[in-house]
DNA sequence: ATAGGGGTACCG
DNA sequence: CGGTACCCCTAT
């Protein structure tokens, strides 16, 4: 190897290796406690959301841990789960004993617990639609409808399954048949529709009768 | 920021 | 020494 070569070659394996030796951090084994943090974080945030798990204060990982470290740990500890979630091409060489750990199953997007819509919420949703149309997040954000605990997306989903005839008025395919999506008349048409809106029961303030 | 693949320290 | 758990690099 001449001086000329040393100065000119840029991306050979050898030079990369030298850089690696300089930056490589000391090896930190995963203990049971830190592994439990990862498992809990996976149940809450889902597989693949490594940064979210790492930065969650509820899970105090070692100071030098990085999001990639979490991914690598999951990959070696639950090889079968990793294969299930990412495909067989992602499979890599692991100890057989680790395969038995897959009694546990993980999800990429953990499901929130289901909260059924009450009749009161449904009524409020319809009132909200009357006011805002399909601006679901505005309905959810308007205090008067008491739907602040719902996401706009959740309200859209509820409307779609509970009131398909209303929801159809907002779908693009339905719109494209007649008017442009920015046509202001679409809402007017919707407002004129004869669907029933029942007023939510209003709790009377405490009275002095009795 | 993450997925995927290559590299390496460490253990028996 | 072989094999693997942990670390690193990079395309997307």
Automatic annotation (TrEMBL):
<dbReference type="Pfam" id="PF00249">
    <property type="entry name" value="Myb_DNA-binding"/>
</dbReference>
<feature type="domain" description="HTH myb-type">
    <location>
        <begin position="109"/>
        <end position="140"/>
    </location>
</feature>
<dbReference type="InterPro" id="IPR017930">
    <property type="entry name" value="Myb_dom"/>
</dbReference>
<dbReference type="InterPro" id="IPR009057">
    <property type="entry name" value="Homeodomain-like_sf"/>
</dbReference>
<dbReference type="InterPro" id="IPR001005">
    <property type="entry name" value="SANT/Myb"/>
</dbReference>
<keyword id="KW-0539">Nucleus</keyword>
<protein>
    <recommendedName>
        <fullName>Myb-like domain-containing protein</fullName>
    </recommendedName>
</protein>
<feature type="domain" description="Myb-like">
    <location>
        <begin position="109"/>
        <end position="158"/>
    </location>
</feature>
<feature type="domain" description="Myb-like">
    <location>
        <begin position="22"/>
        <end position="78"/>
    </location>
</feature>
<dbReference type="InterPro" id="IPR052450">
    <property type="entry name" value="TRBD-Containing_Protein"/>
</dbReference>
